[in-house]
Amino acid sequence: MIERILDGSLMPHGQCLLWRADLLFLHLVGDFLTVLAYALIPGALVYFIFKREDLRFNWVSVLFAGFIAFCGLTHAIGLVNIWHGYYFIEGMVKLLTGVVSIVTAYMLWRLMPSFLSVPSIAMLKQRNHELESVRAELERANKTLEARVKQRTYELEKKANTDSVTGLSNRFSIIEKLQSNFFHFQRYKRTFSVLMIDIDHFKQVNDLHGHQVGDQVLEEVAKSIKKTCRQTDFIGRYGGEEFLVILPETGSEPATKLAQRIRANIEALPLSIDSHVTCSIGVAHIEPGLSQKTLVKQADEAMYSAKNSGRNKVVAYKSKI
Question: Which residues form a coiled coil (predicted)?
Answer without folding.
Answer: 121-155
